């Protein structure tokens, strides 16, 4: 019976899995970061609009 | 991928000290370059702004018109020319295919440039200093801008935006 490999050894022996994993981590991180930025971007502050539009 | 399959039991084999040292050097170098990439956003002098607001083309156009009315000094080829007071907010519009207004700024003084697009993606590219920023519609992109040399500068569009793209040239004049 073959000896059971350690998880990290098994992973390092799979180049295609490493290739996919290294792309998926960045893809997932940037996607979440981008969505977070889009959702949390605030509108132009009312105070600034008041300064620009005021007095006309 | 290695040419040869590693021999069985490679994982539990002791690594030679010189190989270990090179792995450490490469690891430290990789992490340093990664840290530099993030750190440059804090210490670099020509970085994108962290200040962005949502807006709409209608709202931004209205704000720009009010802003220009107060600081307009003339017109050049149908383009409004403005001379904002140092430290003030100045609105810049990108649309197919022009940058408006033309700016007259003072050397060494700081300005807050609000830039947005009226239609689709444009690229604010200040030449010849080569500072580049993407300008999206529906976002007010605030650039804190401090000219360090006087003269005439051009703003070109560096995101292809249709058949007038090459003619989309704006002007910034920096006075002493």
Describe the structure.
- Chain A is mainly alpha-helical.
- In chain B, strand 2 and strand 3 form a beta hairpin.
- Chain B has 176 residues and is of the alpha+beta class.
- In chain B, the strands form two sheets. In chain B, strands 2-3-6-12-11-8-9 form a seven-stranded mixed beta sheet. Chain B has a five-stranded mixed beta sheet with strand order 1-10-7-4-5, covered by helices on one side.
- Chain B is elongated.
- Chain B has two domains: 28 residues; 124 residues, Cupredoxins -  blue copper proteins (Immunoglobulin-like), CATH 2.60.40.
- Chains A and B meet through helix 1 and helix 3 of A and strand 1 and helix 2 of B.
Counted by DSSP, the helix tally of chain A is: 3
The general outline of chain A is rod-shaped
CATH class of the largest domain in chain B: Mainly Beta
Counting DSSP H or I runs of 4 or more residues, the number of helices of chain B is: 2
Give the neighbour order of strands across the main sheet of chain B.
2-3-6-12-11-8-9
Termini of chain A, distance in Å? 86 Å
Radius of gyration of chain A: 25 Å
Indicate the proportion of strand residues of chain B. 35-45%
How far apart are the termini of chain B? 60 Å
Please bin the fraction of helical residues of chain B.
10-25%
CATH topology of the largest domain in chain B: Immunoglobulin-like
Sheet having the most strands of chain B:
7 strands, mixed
CATH architecture level-2 label of the largest domain in chain B: Sandwich
Which class of secondary structure composition applies to the elements of chain A?
A: mainly alpha
Q: Into which percentage range does the β-strand content of chain A fall?
A: under 5%
Order of helices and strands of chain B: HEHEEEEEEEEEEE
- State the shape of chain B: elongated
